[in-house]
Design goal:
Blueprint (H helix, E strand, L loop, with lengths): L3 E11 L7 E12 L3 E6 L5 H7 L8 E6 L2 E2 L7 H7 E4 L12 H11 L4 H14 L4 H4 L9 H13 L5 E5 L7 H18 L2 E5 L3 H7 L2 E6 L2 E6 L1 H4 L3 H6 L6 H11 L11 H14 L1
Parallel strand pairs: 3-8, 3-9, 6-7, 7-8
Antiparallel strand pairs: 1-2, 1-4, 4-5, 9-10
Helix pairs in contact: 3-4, 3-6, 4-6
Bound molecules: adenosine-5'-diphosphate and magnesium ion.
Subunit structure: Forms a stable energy-coupling factor (ECF) transporter complex composed of 2 membrane-embedded substrate-binding proteins (S component), 2 ATP-binding proteins (A component) and 2 transmembrane proteins (T component).
Enzyme class: translocase
Membrane topology: Peripheral membrane protein
Length: about 290
């Protein structure tokens, strides 16, 4: 069976039948292939968090199906434990959920719950802590509460990575971090993807971050998928993106402006690195 996530006619209604009823997802259809790095983007309230919480069984659809690796996880009697081992979900502000007295214990919590041998747990904890860019020996016995905000966030991510999920979903993993911590976490997520070829779904509202990292973007708007495609395809739709409160990366606006001024530069540039090459080319020409 081909390893993938298939979302079929997924609708989610909160508070069904009472005055607070909200349709958060409206008949969503999506296919995500194994190994894809997906950027899920959309304005606040567009349904991103609701969507991803369906992928590990935390929320149940009001209607529709979710099939992961050929297995319908929305069927009655499905083991949520098994799903959660396959699909790791890092919530927004995951450090708020750290609770153990040491970093080691916090990261080991999930693997221990899977019933793994102590030795295997140790290997996984060490590997996960190093994968998120922390030094195992330095942090293992420390209290998560003594660490910086960025480090705490990484410990929380390590706890999910240590479960060795096939799909890793991160809900705004850089929210509230300073630029340096943000760049570090993003580059570690990228390294994880490259090293293990796991499927990654990164929820973000930063066009800059998404443009740099992902294979494909899914744009949500009011519970619907407004657009999906490679960054180069999605960022062509400037007017549509702006109409739903988004936009394209700042650097893309700059390139478009240069193009408009008659400079022979490409407009389909989304990262600072590519812009630099293009601008250097232009300068050499003059
Ligand atoms: P996003 O993550 O894109 O900001 P959400 O999935 O959190 O969007 O929210 C989608 C819609 O569902 C919003 O209108 C939001 O107010 C509503 N919503 C989210 N969570 C709940 C909840 N637990 N109860 C009721 N409504 C909710
Ligand atoms: Mg959200």
């Amino acid at each position: 069976m081909f390893m993938s996530i298939i979302i079929e006619n997924l609708t989610h209604i909160y508070n069904f039948g009472n005055p607070f009823e909200t349709k958060a997802l409206n008949d969503i259809n999506l296919n995500i292939e194994k190994g894809e790095f997906i950027g899920l983007i959309g304005h606040t309230g567009s349904g991103k968090s609701t969507l991803i919480q369906h992928l590990n069984g935390l929320l149940k659809p009001s209607s529709g199906k979710i099939i992961i690796n050929g297995f319908d996880i929305t069927k009655k009697g499905v083991s949520l434990r098994e799903i959660r081992q396959k699909v790791g979900l890092v919530f927004q502000y995951p450090e708020h959920q750290l609770f153990e007295e040491t970093v080691y214990k916090d990261v080991a919590f999930g693997p221990l719950n899977l019933g793994l041998e102590e030795e295997e747990v140790h290997i996984r904890v060490k590997e996960a802590i190093e994968l998120v860019g922390l030094k195992f020996e330095e942090v293992k016995e420390r209290s998560p509460f003594e660490l910086s905000g960025g480090q705490r966030r990484r410990v929380a991510i390590a706890g999910v990575v240590a479960m060795k999920p096939e799909v890793l979903i991160l809900d705004e993993p850089t929210a509230g971090l300073d630029p340096r911590a943000r760049d570090e976490i993003l580059s570690q997520i990228k390294a994880l993807h490259q090293k293990y070829n796991i499927t990654i779904i990164l929820v973000s509202h930063s066009m800059e971050d998404i443009a740099k990292l992902v294979d494909r973007i899914i744009v949500m708007h009011k519970g619907n998928v407004a657009l999906t495609g490679k960054p180069s395809e999605v960022f062509r739709n400037v007017a549509l993106l702006e109409s739903i409160g988004l936009g394209v990366p700042q650097i893309t606006y700059l390139m478009k402006m240069l193009h408009k001024l008659g400079k022979p530069v490409r407009e389909d540039i989304f990262t600072i690195e590519d812009a630099k090459k293009e601008i250097l080319k232009l300068m050499r020409r003059n």
